[in-house]
Amino acid sequence: MPLELHPMVESDLPDFVRIQFAAFKGGMASKLTPKPRSPQKEQKMVEKHIKSFKEDPDAHYLKVIDTDLGGKIISCAKWRINLKERTEEEIQVQLPKPGKDEEGNQAAIDFMNYLTESRVEWMGGKPFYFLHILITDPDHHRRGAGGMLVRWGVAQADEAQLPTYLEASDAGRPLYERFGFYQVKETIFDLSKYGGEGTERNTAMLRDPLPK
């Protein structure tokens, strides 16, 4: 099997951002990546991930590589693992909050507010496994890389007997359901409010640990 899962190192983070841009080309999640794309904006995102990589003890960055492609990174995940109760201050630090970069971007503001509300409602300060980001290079979909990254976290959550939380697009939802995640909240975004067409659904999902 040419696919292998490994912890990321700091020098991998530009690839994380490259895949993040490629994976979030459309829909509400794409509103969280700077537009128009530029080397300066990409570097700013890399620096944001480097800060989390170095300073957030609960953050675990993972990659799936293809050994047939010289170890190319094809999929990545950022898991957050909190084994103890968190203070209100610790909770607030991790919540997405609109800032200067989101000024004038109502879609980003609305999506970040949705993420904050859902995370407070379903995780709060409780011990939790949280699949914060899961991204796959569009050229390598349906190869099982995403499943490898999900399995890594839920296996640990089962061992710790803790629930797991995530937010899913319609595209990602079937994968998560195969691992036992279920819907706890559904939010429909009217894309016409942001210059688009149609609607988009995002789903907050939980998974209970399997009994030992």
UniProtKB/TrEMBL annotation:
Keywords: Acyltransferase, Transferase. SUPFAM superfamilies: Acyl-CoA N-acyltransferases (Nat). This is Acyl-CoA N-acyltransferase. Gene3D superfamilies: 3.40.630.30. Coiled coil: none annotated. The keyword Transferase applies. It comes from the Eukaryota. GO terms for molecular function: acyltransferase activity, transferring groups other than amino-acyl groups. It comes from Zopfia rhizophila CBS 207.26. The lineage of its organism: Eukaryota, Fungi, Dikarya, Ascomycota, Pezizomycotina. PANTHER family: GNAT FAMILY ACETYLTRANSFERASE (PTHR42791), N-ACETYLTRANSFERASE DOMAIN-CONTAINING PROTEIN (PTHR42791:SF14). It holds the Pfam family Acetyltransf_1. Residues 3-211 form the N-acetyltransferase domain.
